[in-house]
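Backbone shape codes:
===
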Amino acid sequence: LLQMKDSESLGPYMARYFASKLWMGEQWYMQIDSHMGFLRNWDALSIQMLEKAPSNKPVISHLPLPHTFDLEEKIDVAAPRLCGAIFATSDIEGQIVRLEGSYNYDRVKLDTPRFAPYVAAGYLIAHSDMLRDVPFDPFLPYLFLGEEILLSARLWTSGYDIFSPTISLVGHRYERNQQPKFWEAIHMAFTNGVHNPLQMLVLNRIKEQLGYPESARDMVKPKTLLTAVEQYSMGHRRSLDDYLKIAGLNVSLKEVTYTAWCETGQPPPGFERHNHLYNL
């Protein structure tokens, strides 16, 4: 257990980095947000999903249901899947890719997890090899936006395949209107308005890795933003260009192309050998 004051936490992404350093050799690794509820036998069911996924390096992830849902009542219903993304439009988000919500696309629940293009930072589970293959970057303090598209791309280029859970194992309390959020805690610890400029600065480290032309290496300042970036960037098993293509993302034009494979529950291009698992 790692305890620290909220003013020392450096934001949610750094909390994930610190949590990953608590790994003591366990076989499986799960990452969740706080304020979560669990389906009975969630751990055994998680392992079953990973073992049934048609991949040697599967990751199970989606945006969990709101905590108001009874997970036991949803056990025979296909879990929602995370398929969509947009380029952010507000000035403080730097046109970073933002993931949209998970949706129920499937009428029939399968025992085989379906492919998805993205992981959600608030819930994912994989073999703990992930921590060695795709280590969390300690140079992303105060980050709130951008971690999910970066982790999705790093996992895919490192040979990991992303899947949605077959059923919902966790629920999240999204509405906490009376509780301070992490950026409000930063303002209380330092001064009002300090978070947004910090986030805009740090986002350039992510955008450089994803190939945004305005954040190309020779454009990023200060250069210390790219300290040791090669150690925490894309993998070498598959290309970033191929990942962006299957996800339908154009970071130069800030355009999203509808690809259909995720929404229709089919494998992505190049994975047609698994079609028989999903043809009802």
User: Anything to note?
Assistant: The chain has seven helices and eleven strands. The two ends are 46 Å apart (CA to CA).
